[in-house]
Amino acid sequence: MYMTIEETAEYLGMPVEQVRKYVLEGSIRSVHDGEQFFINQHQFSNYFTQLETLKRQIEDYLNEPLPPDRDIKDED
Known about the structure:
Helices cover 49% and strands 11% of the residues.
């Protein structure tokens, strides 16, 4: 499925100008028909997979309990 720059920006949750910049730089592959750029939606499946993996890793890290401190001296 092909999307316009505006639709891609909404799909990715990015500003339109940032997506346009990535298209012009070649970071996002697109097809130009003379008037508009069309972007294939399937090229972002890896991006969303990596994003979910990263979110899960951060959540696991933040939920990991702190280890006990070995340098605590008994004051008794």
